[in-house]
């Protein structure tokens, strides 16, 4: 079974049972689609409310383009996609009847059958009074990037506002994502200030307010330099934020200086430790060399005594003259003793000289 084409259902207006009226435009929609996503519309169509009796909801707080975007979202989950594809201002609204006769004729089968999508869903009347401007500003190739950002974000803010008013949370979240993506891709201070003011004044969505507050905090220095912060948050709050920014900068400078000083002290301590280790190494090297020299002298001394003992046949002492038996005696500094060869019988000293 083929899936339901909600876009065609929206653009055709077939089987619609509810009208949204705004600035002379009629948007023919379906209660099932609207009420399942907006608790406010669902409540208005219950009980003894006049909207429930007439099947008409009049919207005065928002312009027709904003209403068109909300309706497109209700049917497609997005907005401005159909308009972008067709490169023309299209919506779900029938053109505003100019006379009672045309209103009556538009309901007849023969007339309804002759209506084409291009005429049935235009957001502007079939005839525009001389000098009248369209609802949405015209964006031409000469439009500056800042104006594009301003127009885009203001439109998204209005979409958020209508979503907040009619309690369509998915639409509010979508508008917030579009606002965030716009500013992350192309930041413009003047555009931000304009859209932030609109967000504060027109929408009660805390998520949108928090996002604008975050952008304000991130761009606080730029806003302070531009002088536009008081118009956004008020003179007193701007003064508080200015002092806070000044104190924060001073604190950051102090922290930076302290970090530099700590780094210098750490480097100095490291250098001192290196010098101390080098000195210890040098001292150990000197001690080792001295010990090796002492050991060499001791070995030479003992070697001479052993050689003397091997070649001596009898004691050199005239009073002894016994066959030579000997022992070695250590004298002097224990760290570097001097060894003496003595006769085992008379204990006289035998030298190598």
UniProtKB/TrEMBL annotation:
Gene3D superfamilies referenced in this protein's UniProt entry, alphabetically: Potassium Channel Kv1.1, Chain A
Protein's recorded name: BTB domain-containing protein
TM regions (residue ranges): none
CDD domains given in the database record: BTB_POZ_ZBTB_KLHL-like
Domain BTB residues, every copy: 16-83
Region (Disordered), start-end ranges: 99-137
């Amino acid at each position: 079974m083929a899936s339901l084409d909600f876009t065609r259902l929206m653009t055709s207006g077939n089987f619609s049972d509810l009208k949204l009226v705004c600035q002379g435009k009629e948007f023919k929609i379906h209660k099932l689609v609207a009420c399942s996503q907006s608790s406010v519309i669902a409540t208005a169509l219950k009980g003894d409310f006049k909207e429930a009796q007439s099947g008409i909801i009049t919207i005065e707080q928002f312009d027709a383009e904003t209403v068109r975007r909300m309706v497109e979202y209700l049917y497609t989950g997005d907005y401005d996609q159909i308009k972008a594809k067709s490169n023309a201002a299209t919506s779900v609204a029938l053109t505003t009847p100019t006379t009672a006769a045309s209103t009556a004729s538009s309901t007849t089968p023969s007339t309804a059958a002759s209506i084409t999508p291009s005429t049935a869903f235009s957001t502007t009347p079939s005839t525009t009074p001389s000098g009248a401007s369209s609802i949405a500003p015209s964006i031409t190739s000469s439009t500056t990037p800042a104006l594009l950002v301003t127009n885009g974000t203001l439109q998204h803010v209005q979409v958020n506002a209508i979503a907040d008013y009619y309690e369509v949370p998915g639409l509010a979240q979508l508008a917030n994502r579009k606002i965030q993506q716009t500013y992350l891709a192309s930041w413009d201070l003047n555009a931000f200030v304009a859209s932030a003011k609109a967000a504060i004044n027109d929408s009660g969505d805390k998520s949108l307010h928090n996002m604008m507050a975050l952008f304000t905090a991130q761009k606080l220095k730029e806003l302070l330099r531009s002088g536009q912060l008081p118009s956004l948050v008020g003179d007193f709050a701007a003064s508080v934020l200015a002092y806070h920014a000044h104190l924060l900068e001073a604190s950051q400078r102090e922290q930076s200086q302290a970090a530099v000083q700590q780094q210098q002290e750490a480097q100095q301590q490291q250098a001192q430790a290196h010098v101390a280790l080098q000195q210890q190494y040098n001292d150990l090297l000197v001690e080792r060399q001295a010990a090796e020299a002492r050991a060499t002298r001791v070995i030479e001394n003992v070697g001479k005594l052993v050689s003397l003992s091997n070649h001596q046949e009898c004691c050199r002492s005239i009073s002894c003259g016994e066959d030579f038996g000997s022992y070695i005696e250590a004298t002097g500094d224990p760290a570097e003793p001097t060894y003496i060869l003595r006769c085992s019988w008379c204990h006289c000293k035998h030298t190598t000289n």
